[in-house]
């Protein structure tokens, strides 16, 4: 009974999650999504693609460069389950795209591999791998002569394997398929073998034949993992994400500027200040610390007169200028710590001093959305 309840809760949670995630439809003919609509940014969503009955698997890849230059930054799969007759592939995308950017997308459609295709693939890889061995290894003066190092030959064998499998796919996304280290060790040991009538009685001898047999066995094991062959490919380049508004925060607060003295004899200026804050993080990509952090600039709204003969203001605009690191401690309350640029003048004396002094403050924050209407952005 408890298991039944647990399964029901998990299914319900999964259904609720899917219902909350937006979906976008791939249009193969027009090479666009949702009739040209920009893709959602800063959130997870689903791609849906129409598939023919013979399509058994679809791979979706996202890249910010061309696909032949780098590995995709995200990939997901849809595999037809059992006798499922669905005509729509549902591919989840949990890579949060950045707003106002273009990305490249590739959809690979696969059919079930046939026994004939599997046998042909096996023969092709085996023949090419054997050719690599015969081309790079000969017999000379009772020794095996290598035209390439064993490690380079092993790399060439893996290249043959990867090239042969480029249009074939496993049931699951896994690590890169390679031959085992056994073959590399056999190649290394071959450099130590002295050719005798036993080792070279037929062609390159039984030592090389043993490597060929190991290759054949591993090719068979590897191909048993593959179930699909590529039937179609759709690539959409430089497709845009939705436009997001830029966030501008206005701060109005009260702070104190250090003048001199230790804590017990502290001398400071204090007054109201106002300025702007620029976020250092984005909640879709950053942790909570950077999401609440910001860089701030602004001015104190008053000058200071510590004595009748001293006036402390700021250069350029005649008010103290500050730059600070800000951190939001509540929804609309932010603490600032930074430095102020001050200008001090003494009445009756012509000299002027410009210097920096640290300050701390507490402010209220008001957010403004610049560039796109806030309500439009959330649609």
Report what the structure shows.
- It is a single chain.
- The protein is α+β, with helices and mostly antiparallel strands.
- The chain folds into 3 domains: 2-112 and 233-240, Immunoglobulin-like, CATH 2.60.40; 115-227, no CATH class; 246-377, no CATH class.
- Helices cover 25% and strands 41% of the residues.
- It has helices at 2-20, 115-136, 150-164, 181-190, 206-223, 288-292, 374-377; strands at 22-27, 32-33, 45-50, 55-63, 74-79, 88-93, 102-112, 137-140, 143-146, 168-170, 226-240, 246-260, 267-279, 293-300, 310-313, 321-330, 333-346, 352-370.
- A 6-stranded antiparallel barrel has the order 12-13-14-16-17-18. The protein has a 5-stranded antiparallel beta sheet with strand order 5-4-7-11-10, with no helix packed on it. A 4-stranded mixed beta sheet has the order 2-1-3-6.
- A hairpin with a 2-residue loop joins strand 8 and strand 9.
- Helix 2 packs antiparallel against helix 5 (206-223) and helix 3 (150-164) packs antiparallel against helix 4.
- It is elongated and about 105 Å long.
């Amino acid at each position: 009974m408890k298991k039944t309840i647990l399964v029901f809760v998990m299914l319900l949670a999964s259904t609720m999650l899917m219902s909350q995630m937006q979906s976008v439809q791939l249009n193969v003919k027009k090479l666009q999504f949702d009739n040209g609509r920009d893709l959602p940014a800063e959130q997870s969503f689903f791609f849906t693609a129409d598939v023919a009955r013979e399509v058994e698997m679809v791979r979706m890849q996202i890249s910010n460069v061309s696909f032949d230059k780098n590995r995709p930054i995200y990939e997901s799969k849809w595999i037809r389950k059992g006798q499922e007759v669905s005509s729509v592939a549902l591919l989840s995308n949990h890579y949060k795209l950045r707003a106002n950017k273009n990305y490249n997308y590739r959809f690979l459609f696969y059919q079930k591999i046939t026994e004939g295709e599997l046998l042909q693939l096996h023969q092709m890889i085996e023949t090419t791998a054997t050719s690599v061995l015969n081309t790079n290894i000969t017999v000379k003066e009772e020794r095996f002569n290598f035209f390439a190092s064993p490690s380079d030959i092993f790399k060439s064998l893996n290249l043959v394997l990867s090239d042969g499998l480029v249009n074939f796919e496993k049931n699951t996304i896994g690590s890169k398929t390679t031959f085992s280290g056994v073959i590399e060790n056999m190649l290394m040991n071959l450099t130590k073998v002295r050719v005798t009538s036993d080792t070279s009685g037929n062609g390159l001898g039984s030592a090389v034949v043993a490597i060929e047999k190991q290759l054949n066995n591993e090719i068979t094991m590897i191909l048993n993992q593959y179930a699909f062959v590529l039937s179609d490919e759709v690539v959409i380049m430089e497709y845009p994400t939705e436009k997001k508004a830029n966030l501008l925060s206005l701060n109005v607060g009260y702070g104190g500027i250090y003048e001199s003295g230790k804590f017990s004899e502290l001398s400071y200026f204090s007054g109201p200040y106002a300025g702007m804050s620029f976020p250092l993080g984005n909640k879709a990509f950053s942790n909570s610390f950077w999401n609440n952090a910001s860089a701030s600039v602004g001015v104190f709204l008053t000058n200071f007169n510590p004595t009748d003969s001293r006036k402390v203001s700021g250069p350029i605009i005649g008010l103290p200028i500050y730059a600070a690191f800000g951190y939001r401690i509540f929804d609309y309350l932010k603490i600032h710590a930074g430095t102020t640029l001050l200008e001090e003048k003494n009445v009756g004396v012509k000299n002027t001093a410009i210097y920096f002094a640290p300050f701390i403050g507490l402010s209220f924050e008001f957010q403004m959305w610049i560039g796109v209407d806030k309500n439009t952005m959330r649609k």
